[in-house]
Amino acid sequence: DYDGVPWCNNNGEHAVKAFASRRKGMGKVYAEGGLQDYLLLLSIYQTLRYRGFSFWQFLQSGETDIEAFTAKRR
What's this model's pTM, rounded to 2 decimal places? Predict the structure, then answer.
């Protein structure tokens, strides 16, 4: 019914799957601060992955802006 909205949400499903598998592996409840940190890193990781860039190289670069990092690498 809405233009530009895909009928499936694979990106969202993959992000939830990554979180759920981590939670399952840990076997315990996250503290709120730890959960926020993990979700922030997961978001950065997934964004870079979908854009075809290395999360590790992003961390090593010291850059804090994904847009600036990816613009330098194109």
Answer: 0.64
